[in-house]
Amino acid sequence: MKDVSFVDYLLVGLAVTTLVLAAEERVSCPKLCVCEIRPWFSPSSVYMEAPTVDCNDLGLFDLPMRLPSDTQVVLLQTNNIAKIEHPLDYLPNITEIDLSQNNLSSISDVNIGHLPQLLSLHMEENWICALLDNSLSQLTNLQELYLNHNLISFISPEAFRGLQSLLRLHLNSNRLQSIKSEWFEPLPNLEILMIGENPVLSIQDMSFKPLRNLRSLVLTRMNLSQISDDSLLGLDNLESISFYDNTFPKVPHGALKHLKSLKFLDLNKNPIGRIQRGDFVDMLHLKELGINSMPELVSIDSFSLNNLPELTKIEATNNPKLSYVHPNAFYRLPRLETLMLNGNALSALHRFTVESLPNLREVSMHSNPIRCDCVVRWMNMNKTNIRFMEPDSLFCVEPPEYEGQHVRQVHFREMMEICLPLISSESFPTQISVESGRSVSLHCRAFAEPEPDIYWVTPSGIRVNPNAVSERFYMHPEGTLDIYDITKSEAGLYTCVAHNLVGADLKSVSLEVNGYFPQPVNDSLNVNIESVQANSVLISWNASHGSLAPNIKWYTMPSANHPTVAFTARVPSDVTVYNLTHLNPATQYKVCVDIQSIHHKHDTKCVNVLTKGLQQAVKDFQIWDMALIAAFGVLFIVISVACFLIYVFMRNNCIYGELKRYPSKMSLMSETSQKSPFTRLWISGKGMPAAVEVKATVINVLDNAF
Fold it and tell me: Where in the cell is it found (predicted)?
């Protein structure tokens, strides 16, 4: 009995001890913190449920003295901790510590001890200014280190010593002015580096060469306008790179060509003006390309995306000046499935552009100023299986009769098969100011069917054609005019003309050099009538230097027999003569020429003209014919008389000379002429016989008659 009682007491004691220990374990969760099991993902994306102590946003100045021994994750975000004096060595299972948004100013103030299981350390948004040698050398198994949004301006060559297991390093949004390859030598296994948003002046050659296993590099918002061709050398395994929100004026293809394994390229929000041929050469593994939100992008030129066999997605959205995608822009892209072009200034997407992409599945064209004419007829012909994203947001903007209608509700038979060129105003500025000695590019693009030809007219009236060689000018085939080494002589008005067999469109841009622009001559506008016919009137006018393209308007004067009908035309700025055709005979017209100057001043002159009547036109025509016939008759008579006189004169001279030099033949000629009047002698010009022609009549006589 006693033995049984002793056993009972022993069991009761053990139970009480267990309850006390459990109570102590529960009490060990720091005050105001939350201790619970939460989902957690390792740096390699392995899911587990981890005991977590959440002390976020409590205004703590010190780390809690004691944490539960099984703690794996400690969250101390958004507090006032400036220093950690007590190591956390007593936590054998700890894998993540978050000290972001505190008051830490030095890594040496973070004494967390030797933590072999620690995988992630967050210290972003503190006040750390420098990383000294061996700052975190005790964390030999650390895989993720977040130091972004601090004040780091200096990194010692041995700062990352001991972190050979590090996979992810965030140094973005600090104050680094250079990037040195020696920093990364202790990090042979680093896979992800974010170092953007630092005021780096330039990236030197082979700055990232020690990072042979790097897969992702983020260089955002660093104000980079160029990088050397060898700056990315050594990144043979890099798969993703981001140049988001820099200042590149063109694609850095010289540096990108070394990234043979690149799959994802982010060029968003750079002031790149054109996507050109050769920008993405030899990127055989590229899968996705982002060229969104580019404020200066005006065109994707011919063969600019060529021979990219693994490319599946192109995003070129929200580019306010992107008005032209060349019909041959995309070539040999066999796997492209998604083409996103929404939110641009595109008036059309050419049929051939789509037909050149055999695997294309979906296109995004909404939120563009679509012109519903011949170029987009293919969208409504039901000959394609391509899906249009957000078709309800795809509206016609032009022509006026289709404005506001859904593009795919306009029947293709209502659209003409050929159409006028249209130069996009969104991509064409009205005025540009530059300094002397600089160069500038003027972009001009136009859609039409047939495809239009483009040329430029300089302020001096010189026509610049594609690929023409000049000291100051060069025009690219797509329509961009480059002006080199600008002086004040190049200031003035430049006009782009796009034309095909249907008609033409033109737009002008004024170029100001060092604040100088040639002032127009104060000559008043004069309009002259050069010729008047029954169905046409030829007019001319004087245009002063610096004038924009003239607008011509003509209309019939109101009368009881003819309602007022108005017509308009716009001609290039270098044209000063225009022929009005298809007019009505014997009709009073008013013709006005309106010319706007660079200073937005209008000069308008009008003249009245009466076309000839049909009877008057026929009478004039008959008079003209009679006069023409009479002139030809007189000319014929004069020529005939002259020829006759010359002939008589030459004949008399020849015969007289012959008789004078050969008098012995005179009697023979007399006798011959008397006996046979049908015989004649032809004499050459020198008096010698040239030929003798005998015309005889045969008379049947007997032999004895002689």
Answer: Membrane
